[in-house]
Amino acid sequence: MNSQDMMRLAARKFGSQIQSAWQDFHLTGLPVLYDPDSHEQQIFMPYFLFHWDPQKPRTGKRANRRGGIVSRWYELERAGTLSDMHRLFLEQATAQPVSFWEVLWSEAGEGFGLLDILVGMETQVIERSASRALQKGDIIYGQVWNLQASDRGLHGPDLHPAQLEGRGDRTSEKTQKEDCQAKSGPGWR
Question: In what order do the strands lie in the sheet with 111-116?
Fold first, then answer.
């Protein structure tokens, strides 16, 4: 899954609705003006790309429909070109809850243990990049993705910008699976 490709599709198909998504994100009907330079971009863009749906009810049976309108549209347009790994990434991005996590332990280059602060669930994440910078007691915001039955990766907004700077987009499925680094899209303009 190419995040830049998904951002282009979102701008082309849903750019005129960004204000509506921004208001939904803030859970208000009040006029909260969209600010592409806001520090909230880091958490808004994943919401916009993977969860926002202008016709999705907030309660009831249809409230749990899979993914937002942008990710569903992307999956439809790229149906013949998405690999199994890309489909898995889309599935995890839309299905796993976003939460606040406390780092319980970290082994550089190997992984770390997390506690979901909101629900009290503990999990272990196997990955190679964020574990180099995380320390016990750190609080992070993101999603834990189940990439295989025994592997979990963490995806979140710019968790460690200093370490990720200049690395560019990784397209190899093997690299994406082994090096689940945190990424978010560029600012919306």
Answer: 122-126, 111-116, 99-107, 139-146, 152-155
In this prediction the pTM is: 0.68
pLDDT score for 72: 93
Residue 49 is given by DSSP the state H
How far is it between the farthest Cα atoms of the chain? 45
Q: Match 């629900």 to its residue by tokens.
A: 119
Residue 126 has φ and ψ, to the nearest 5°, of -105, 120
Domains of the chain: 3-95 (no CATH), 99-178 (2.40.50)
**Long-range contacts of the stretch 27-31 (C-beta < 8 A, 24+):** none
Cα distances (angstroms) measured from residue 35 to each of 50, 91, 186: 19, 28, 13
Q: What share of the chain is helix, strand, coil (3-state, %, to 5)?
A: 40, 15, 45
Strand spans (E) along the chain? 99-107, 111-116, 122-126, 139-146, 152-155
Do 134 and 157 touch, CB atoms closer than 8 A?
no
CA dist 63 and 24 (Å) reads 14
DSSP code of residue 60: S
Q: Other CB atoms closer than 10 Å to residue 54's CB: what's the count?
A: 11
pLDDT tens figures, 2-36: 788 999 999 999 999 999 999 999 888 888 899 99
